[in-house]
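Hi V.,

You were right to ask for the full record rather than a summary. Here it is.
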Amino acid sequence: MNCKMLLIPFLMLFSQVALAQEDSYNVVVVLDDSGSMGDGTKLADAKAGLITVLKQVPANSNVGICLLNHGWLTEIGPVNQAEIEIKINAIQARGGTPLAKNMKKGADALLEYRKQHHYGIYRLLIVTDGEANSGDADNVEPYLKDILSRGITVDAIGVAMKSDHSIARLLGDNYRRANDQASLEKAISASFAETSSEDSTNPDGETDFELLANIPIEIATECLIALAATGNHPIGTAPVAVIQIAQIVAEEQQAAPEDQPEGVPEEAHEAQDLSHNAATTSAVQTERSSATGIGGLFCACICPLFFGAVVLLFVAVKIMRKK
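Predicted structure:
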């Protein structure tokens, strides 16, 4: 079966469901509370700017604030204006700059929230005045690349730094400098601003079906795998689905064509491959969905039957056409 044809219903389904949802704005702020932030008015400006912006966030916003040295000031959820202002004003500057581990902590919280609520805009805002500690610095770039690959927008603000932070190279325009309360407020506000979706019309006038027709089989297969996976596993780890699918692909590539038994119709081989892949995908999804009650039961029982029925129908049609 052509993988590209399978992409069409997947894309149509996900696009329609996504459009039907009201986007929520889910932001985790990783705030530097290291000793150097106490120099001058850096921390005071950051706190004032953050409080001002949080008073203006939309009602459907969910915000979490994670401090580099003191953990969660408030976990991700609806903004309680009075409570959060008291907590922000109580922040004190002391400690080091364990940036990477707190980037991971903030991103993992967003991924877990997305796993539960699915739709919305997810952003990680980093506010810092310096580079990560030596024991933590090696993980900053790989963690950042992993976070970006999961569809989380990352913004960073360099507070009164003499030169750009090392992560500026990977963030481009999403990195901003701020040297006072006004510029900090403006930079923080930009991270909470609504991002409008761009027009997806192809300038050449091609339809989505025409564009899909030119996708190589290998890329179409990867797209189907990506659509089947949630991408919400913790930063710095590989999802179970990717590991098991990679093992299956490696095993199938090693199998020689002559190993196939003689006299078996081509359609049967194709059906076996489809059934094997569908069953494996269902098993992987079941493992990830087991904690969701009815969802886990659905993946464990209904999905294999559904895919099996589709495969049998596909084989039957091809055999009848040949007759």
